[in-house]
Amino acid sequence: MNETYAFIEAEKTTHGVALLCRLLKVARSSFYAWLAAATNRAARKAADDALAHEITVIHVASRHTYGVPRVHAELRRLGRCVNRKRVARLMREHGIQGAHRRRRRSLTRPDKKAKPAPDLIGRDFYAETPGTQLVGDITALPTGEGWLYLACWLDLATREVVGYSMAGHHRADLVVDALKMAAGRGRLQPGCIAHSDRGSEYTSSLFRHYISDLGLRQSCGRTGSCFDNAAANSFWALLKEEIGTRLWPDRATARAEVFDFIETFYNRRRLRKHKAFGYLTPAETRQRHQHDLAA
């Protein structure tokens, strides 16, 4: 109907409004009502264009990864009170989409001779206090020089990456170095649970001795069950999709990009919906916990 009214508006000086309305079978009152609302429509379009520009800036700053929920949350953090459905409509109209996850390659190689630790998590990937429960895993990133292996430890209370390590191998040293970083940052509580799968790196004597020296408790999921370490698997899917690169030219470039993703973007800038605090970055979630504890 808007096209019909626009045609009448364009041709009214040539044929007259009454004749055009009669030929097109529309009421003159409806045309004049549409004409009177033109100013409001122009104002709404200008507001939509301005909001679409803000959405585009937020989406680019998120490395083209944010979908509707996080774009809407970022707008609210910036003081823009907008309807989520409006954000969804504008993103759809402008072809702005969040990142979609893909399947990952499994590196789990169980040591059949080793006796695994008990599962102390039980698929409950929520912790009340930072430094009390960690989940860890290893993934492989393809480069022109071969695989670069990345081991990470996530704090379940904040989803912050508290320790990570990269190397051209995935021996036990890799996961030990990542745990050393987590311990070196001084954010682990006595008796903290370190949960992983039953890969040979985590059942090795080297890793178990280091766990014991730190006074931590080891936890392992079942063999062949990705759901027993779902929080770590979810982070790998997120990293591989949102980092944007599919194949790095060499290991040094991959190391630099992973460092930038974890330290600059994921821990400090990427919003995540916390069940109690709302949309916060992992670093902000940790600070909120510390503030509540001090209070």
From TrEMBL:
Membrane spanning segments where? Answer: none
- Source superkingdom: Bacteria
What are the Integrase catalytic domain coordinates in residue numbering?
Answer: 126-290
Which Pfam families does this one have?
HTH_21, rve
Q: What does this protein do?
A: Involved in the transposition of the insertion sequence.
Protein name listed in UniProt: IS3 family transposase
> What organism is the protein native to?
Streptomyces atroolivaceus
